[in-house]
Write a structure and sequence with these properties.
Its main location: membrane. By secondary structure, the protein is mainly alpha-helical. It has a single domain, classed as ABC transporter involved in vitamin B12 uptake, BtuC (Orthogonal Bundle), CATH 1.10.3470.10. It is 77% helix and 0% strand.
Length: 350
């Protein structure tokens, strides 16, 4: 029996080499993203009206008492930085999940109105009902999930569910934005500053006692989405292909939608709708890590880095301090316009 020739083995060798290059690029890219998060996180703890050295920050983080730094770093800057990381990761995972599942970069919770539902409910709670922060967060989460359910039910049926869901979501989001404007007109003057947080997304006033719901959501739901990552890749090929590959499409889709919506709503309930982080994190992550593999973890890292960087820019790059949502809005709006123009030129298919 003749031995296989080197020529016949060459394609297999090339495939293995290509796979190895993609894995190496992915590991390096994710390591760089992780290092960037650590650097930005450290900068948020060090920088402010008083700049503390690394040794003081490390001492505070290890539980030592440092005059001045223990309060400023431990009670003010640390909750802000942790909230930025967790909210950014939650928004990033939620956006990448929707974008991959629906095979459309426009399909992120902040574009299709889910976070608008959470924001409208939060403003209703704060300026009309005057509920507590915990009740406001619970109402925001429930409203976000309800908004997603309404959009999903309205978009069901037909062959182009993804495109219809996005259009219906944009319409629902516009209506909810009108509701927000109406509520603000009815609000007392002293409530407007609080409501502004829910309109723009801000880390100002982040507190350690507000972190547990967000931390629990990230710790519990992100692994769920990561575990479903292989099925998510199959869904990206279309329902028929995913079914042929053995994926239980309906069950997987429900689990992914519930997890992604819950992540987006809890993050919105904590910080307000930080614009375009969910929208930008997935595409940026794919540019960095390259094709192949699940986009979930890279999107989480990218989302965290985006929020940290935007908050630092908002705090220190201008004479006036801006909420983080203003900075991410400035970064994300041009990309949204670009995608809408590209989608329009392709006849509605992005």
């Amino acid at each position: 029996m003749a031995a296989p020739s080197l020529t016949s083995e060459r394609p297999i060798i090339d495939v293995r080499a290509g796979r190895l290059r993609r894995r190496r690029r992915r590991v390096i890219a994710m390591s760089v993203l992780g290092a960037l998060i650590v650097i930005l996180f450290g900068a948020m703890l060090m920088l402010g009206n008083t700049i503390y050295p690394v040794s003081d920050v490390i001492a505070v983080l290890t539980g030592q008492q440092v005059p001045g730094a223990s309060f400023t770093v431990g009670s003010l800057r640390l909750p802000r930085a942790l909230t930025a990381v967790l909210a950014g990761a939650a928004f990033g995972v939620a956006g990448a999940t929707f974008q991959t599942m629906l095979r459309n970069p426009l399909a992120s919770p902040d574009v299709i109105g889910i976070t608008s539902g959470a924001s409208a409910a939060a403003i209703l709670s704060l300026v009309i009902l005057h509920w507590s922060n915990a009740a406001t967060m619970a109402l925001a989460i429930a409203a976000g999930i309800g908004t997603a359910l309404v959009i999903y039910v309205a978009a069901r049926g037909g062959e182009s569910t993804g495109g219809r869901l996005i259009l219906i979501g944009i319409g629902v989001g516009a209506m909810l934005d009108a509701v927000v404007a109406f509520l603000l007109l009815r609000a007392a003057v002293w409530d407007l500053s609080v409501a502004t947080r829910w309109m723009t997304g801000s880390l100002n006033g982040a507190r350690m006692d507000e972190l547990p719901p967000l931390a629990i959501a990230v710790v519990v739901l992100v692994p769920v989405v990561v575990i479903l990552g292989r099925s998510l890749g199959a869904l990206e090929l279309g329902e028929a292909s995913a079914t042929a590959l053995g994926v239980r499409v309906d069950r997987t889709r429900v689990l992914l939608v519930v997890s992604a919506v819950a992540l987006a709503c809890v993050a919105t309930g904590t910080t307000g709708p930080i614009a375009f982080v969910a929208f930008l994190a997935g595409p940026i992550a794919l540019r960095i890590v390259g094709p192949g593999g699940s986009p979930i973890v890279p999107a989480a890292l990218t989302g965290a880095a985006l929020v940290l960087a935007a908050d630092l820019i908002g705090q220190f790059a201008f004479d006036t301090s801006f909420p983080v949502g203003v900075i991410t809005g400035i970064l994300g709006a041009p990309y949204l316009i670009y995608l809408l123009i590209r989608t329009s030129r392709r006849g509605g298919s992005s």
